[in-house]
Amino acid sequence: MLLTALAWQSLLSRKITVGLTIFAISLSVALFLGVEKVRTGAKASFADTISDTDLILGARSGGVQLLLYSVFRVGNATNNVTWESYQDIASRPEVDWIVPISLGDSHRGFRVMGTTTDFFDRYKYRGGRGLEMAEGARFDDLFDAVVGADVAAELGYETGQEVVVAHGLASFTEHDDKPFRISGVLARTGTPVDRTVFVSLRAIEAIHVDWRNGAQIPGQTVGADAVRQMELTPGAITAAMIGTKSRLQIFGLQRWINEYPEEPLLAILPGVTLQELWSLIGVAETALVGVSAMVVATALLGMAAMIFSGLAERRREMAILRAVGARPWTILGLLSLEALLMAGLGVLLGLALLYGGLLAGRGWIDQSFGIYLRIGAPSPRELAVLGLVLLAALLVSLMPAWRAYRMSLSDGMSIRI
Amino acid sequence: MDGEDAAMAGGTSGQAEQAIRLRDLQFSWSGRTSFRMEVPDLRVARGEKVFLLGESGSGKSTLLSLICGINAPQRGTVEVDGTALGSLSAAARDRFRAERIGVIFQMFNLLPYASPLENILLPLSFAKARRARVADPRAEALRLTAGLGLEADLVCGARASELSIGQQQRVAAARALIGGPALIVADEPTSALDAARQGDFLDLLMQQTEAEGATLLMVSHDARLAERFDRVMDLSQVVLTSREGPGAGG
Ligand SMILES: Nc1ncnc2c1ncn2[C@@H]1O[C@H](COP(=O)(O)OP(=O)(O)OP(=O)(O)O)[C@@H](O)[C@H]1O
Ligand SMILES: [Mg+2]
């Protein structure tokens, strides 16, 4: 009606300042929602790092630590799990499948993981997606290696190339007497798999047969061909991924492992521990949300300042409205309505910027950061935030609106400029 | 509420022959200025065209804002068209003003961002009875502006800020007249115009006011304009002003 039409025309007559104000609000809204999207996307991607694995087994330590080294390849295991214990657990009736993991060596900054080819079938991420080969095949020969997408991209590796594994994580001693050949490259997953070199568990044994306490035993070196003849049963592994036959058995098996008498072991539920880990990172998350909320607040204060600064020259407008019968409340309403219109337009434009940005950038974000951003209608939480922006705009506009109200009362009919 | 609504309904009831009546009025601005005015008795008859003369700062605008009910006196009564403004609530006073009074200022009469036509129609949205009296607001606005010598395409097309000052004053006059309010109040409407155009504007304003059967109260400090009016009131004769506020030590 009239008030809206007046507010609208008044805004139109100040296109540039109003436009800039709306733009500032929309940028802040887009930023806030963008941070929100990335935050939830990162959280989801994080939680999606590993799925369909019921338990992770390792030597007794902290659950987060076990998750970090077994899944994220961060940090080190303090202890190993003996092959006997592993066999014991593998033969439990609840166990549907079990994949051993052996860590400890590295290749040019990337971790080397010894496992079985089952890993490529059992490792799932992002709600059940499996690993795929971008190139070549899984390891077959003892000295075959499969590399993750980042490893291949950063080091420029292709199948057929020879690589040498270094002993330990940051050492200069290399297992150069037993070079590996790259048999395949994995497709990108956005998980730590991309940054891992996979070899068979037997190969890990093979390169260590003639090693004791971190050094090759002098005079007892075993050649690459000789080692093929040996029976390469590992003495110990670092961790294992376990799937149970029924979800109901998970807790029973977990308890059984945690109470295993022969050796101190730990079994964790990856989902639960992932959440635990995320809550540790959560502080940064809160800070991020806080900063973007401040940006929104700044934009709204800018709007209030802009309305304030316009008041002086709009005094006569107020006097005219009063003279033709407008109530002081009408004038208060007019200014608040203007603020609401600006904030509303800002929110709409902000949404447009956000979704435009998401559509344009999400492929790149997934590729580069492994964060998969879902594009959907704004979540209830986001809608609540947008509602809050409008409410805050209304509240903030009450300051100048109240001043206009007072002015329209005190000026009477005299037009002051 | 009934009384107020009856007062709101407007029209010429006929009982009150005074368009304006001020009695024992006393007013002072609340604020730093110590301006104070007293009006023992002031009457303007219905249909009269009154010229109120007073020098700058003598309280002319203040008096008009009291008559329009924008400011309320500390003591005494203001009656417009037989209705005591003091008996109305603030909201009802605003509505009363919208219904019964058309206001023209010295300059800057119009909302700059709206078209002249929208400016003219503005009071109708605050005044139901005035709105009800015009069948076709647009046609009525054009009729009034034609009477005041403005072309239709200027009224509908341009923005108010694009008009000359003389044109703006005529649009303001049309806004004051539309819907037939009983009282037209003009606060130095000609002081921004040159001498020749002052005469033109006043003639048109008088003509239209007469045609609508309204009362005209115009204030000015320019005595030369007085001769066209029915009556000339010197502010210093009807209003007692003082610079000392009550209780202001010095
Ligand atoms: N809003 C206000 N608040 C406080 N004092 C005011 C206000 N408006 C006017 N006054 C004071 O009231 C006195 C009369 O002012 P007013 O505007 O009525 O004079 P005027 O006769 O209309 O003058 P002019 O011919 O210059 O328009 C002045 O002393 C002025 O300082
Ligand atoms: Mg004045």
UniProtKB/TrEMBL annotation, chain A:
Q: Which domain of life is it from?
A: Bacteria
Compartments in which it is found: Cell membrane
What name goes with this protein?
ABC transporter permease
* UniProt xrefs under Pfam families: FtsX (PF02687), MacB_PCD (PF12704)
Residue ranges occupied by any MacB-like periplasmic core domain in the UniProt entry: 19-207
Q: Which residues cross the membrane?
A: 16-35, 287-308, 329-355, 383-405
InterPro entries (alphabetical):
ABC-4/HrtB_transporter, ABC3_permease_C, MacB_PCD
- Membrane topology qualifier: Multi-pass membrane protein
Automatic annotation (TrEMBL), chain B:
Keywords, alphabetical: ATP-binding, Nucleotide-binding, Transport
Carries keyword Transport? yes
The keyword Magnesium appears for this protein: no
Query: Organism source for this protein?
Result: Pseudooceanicola antarcticus
- State the coiled-coil residue ranges: none
Membrane-spanning residues? none
| The protein's name in its UniProt record | Putative ABC transport system ATP-binding protein
**What are this entry's molecular-function GO terms?**
ATP binding; ATP hydrolysis activity; transmembrane transporter activity
Give a GO cellular-component term.
Answer: plasma membrane
